[in-house]
């Protein structure tokens, strides 16, 4: 089975071609700020990015002949986890503004569907988008009836890591209780109970630990006062939640390697304080998910780019290692995860769900 994978990010579009489980091509197409400045809205980049994908395939001598095209899922309506066949309603919702955020991931289903439509008998999918919502009833309720808790998290990578870990120990994901922490530009932490993520934070814009780019949970009253202070407009304040927040706001960089250099080479005690505070809050939020699982935890899994840092991983182990065994899966492989999800449907091992 030939599968094309498309994963749009804010400044790049990753593509891959798989022959069953074997990657034939993996590319990252970078987009400069000047290139993207021509577009007022992310959705307007659809034709531009699609053409770059087709150009990359042509340059690699790969014919546009696929059994499936799978895109990174967008931030549309909350969904159960799984693989979804892209349909007209999903396309309509992505264009209509129902999407929770104007994020580049919303382009994934649009480009995948357009390319697949030009290929005979080719199917188009998304899998485990960031809006996967399997929260239990308690998790949805906040302290105000005006708003419920929602989760936006690294569902695709967390599920892929969970299945990989389960396979390594000879068990099924659906038989395990896991706490998984994905640490990248944003940090998501979820309690996985027998194959369902029953609790997870909104890692994009305002819940959980702060991260290299995001503010995490903030004091609510102070935030409201800041909104009415007249110092910032709405767009500027939203950037203070996601983008110019977290390490970026405190230290002027979202690169943890740069922060570690400041600590190790220059003895920067302020940088150490801020980084250690982030690690502290990550560990605290991991520990809080143990209550969701009533202490019945098979393992704690750490993943994402920051899981490559021994400085970070060792300090998390010190704080939460008493809860369960900790396994580290550095980085992420969203491209392989997407390809394997599509392949499972094509081989009849998994059924594609309907978006409705």
Automatic annotation (TrEMBL):
Top-rank EC class of the record's enzyme: transferase
Cited CDD domains: ASKHA_NBD_BK
Subcellular localization(s) per the UniProt record: Cytoplasm
Its EC number(s): 2.7.2.7
GO cellular component: cytoplasm
Database matches in InterPro entries: Aliphatic_acid_kin_short-chain, Aliphatic_acid_kinase_CS, ATPase_NBD, Butyrate_kin
Catalytically driven reaction(s): butanoate + ATP = butanoyl phosphate + ADP
Origin superkingdom: Bacteria
Residue stretches in coiled coil: none
Keyword Zinc-finger: no
UniProt GO MF annotations: acetate kinase activity; ATP binding; butyrate kinase activity
Record bears the keyword Nucleotide-binding: yes
GO biological process per UniProt: acetate metabolic process
Keyword tags: ATP-binding, Cytoplasm, Kinase, Nucleotide-binding, Transferase
PANTHER family the UniProt entry points to: ACETATE KINASE, BUTYRATE KINASE 2-RELATED
Homology family: Belongs to the acetokinase family.
Designated name of the protein: Probable butyrate kinase
Organism of origin: Xylanibacter ruminicola (Prevotella ruminicola)
């Amino acid at each position: 089975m030939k599968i094309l994978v498309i994963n749009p990010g804010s400044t790049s579009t990753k593509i891959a071609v798989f022959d069953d489980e074997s990657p034939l091509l993996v590319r990252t197409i970078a987009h400069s700020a000047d290139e993207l400045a021509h577009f007022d809205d992310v959705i307007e980049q659809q034709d531009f990015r699609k053409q770059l994908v087709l150009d990359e395939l042509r340059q690699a001598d790969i014919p546009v002949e696929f059994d499936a095209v799978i895109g990174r899922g967008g931030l549309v309506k909350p969904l159960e986890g799984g693989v979804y066949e892209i349909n007209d309603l999903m396309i309509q919702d992505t264009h209509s503004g129902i999407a929770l955020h104007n994020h580049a991931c919303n382009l994934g289903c649009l480009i995948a569907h357009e390319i697949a439509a030009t290929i005979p008998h080719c199917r188009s999918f998304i899998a485990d988008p960031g809006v996967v919502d399997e929260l239990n009833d308690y998790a949805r309720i906040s302290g105000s009836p005006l708003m419920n808790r929602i989760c936006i998290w690294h569902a695709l990578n967390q599920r892929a890591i969970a299945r990989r870990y389960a396979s390594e120990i000879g068990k099924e994901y659906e038989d395990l209780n896991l706490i998984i922490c994905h640490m990248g530009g944003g940090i998501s932490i979820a309690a996985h109970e027998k194959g369902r993520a029953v609790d997870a934070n909104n890692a994009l814009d305002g819940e959980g630990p702060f991260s290299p780019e995001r503010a995490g949970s903030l004091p609510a009253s102070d935030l409201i006062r800041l909104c009415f202070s007249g110092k910032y407009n709405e767009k500027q304040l939203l950037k203070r939640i996601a983008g110019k927040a977290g390490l970026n706001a405190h230290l002027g960089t979202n690169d943890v390697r740069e922060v570690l250099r400041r600590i190790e080479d220059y003895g920067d005690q302020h940088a150490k304080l801020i980084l250690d505070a982030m690690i502290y809050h990550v560990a605290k939020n991991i520990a809080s998910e143990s209550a969701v699982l009533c202490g019945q935890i098979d393992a704690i899994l750490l993943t994402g780019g920051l899981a490559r840092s021994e400085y970070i991983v060792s300090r998390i182990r010190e704080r939460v290692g008493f809860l369960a065994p900790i396994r580290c899966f550095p980085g992420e492989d969203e491209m392989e995860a997407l390809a394997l999800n599509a392949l499972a449907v094509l081989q009849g091992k998994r059924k594609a769900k309907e978006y409705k």
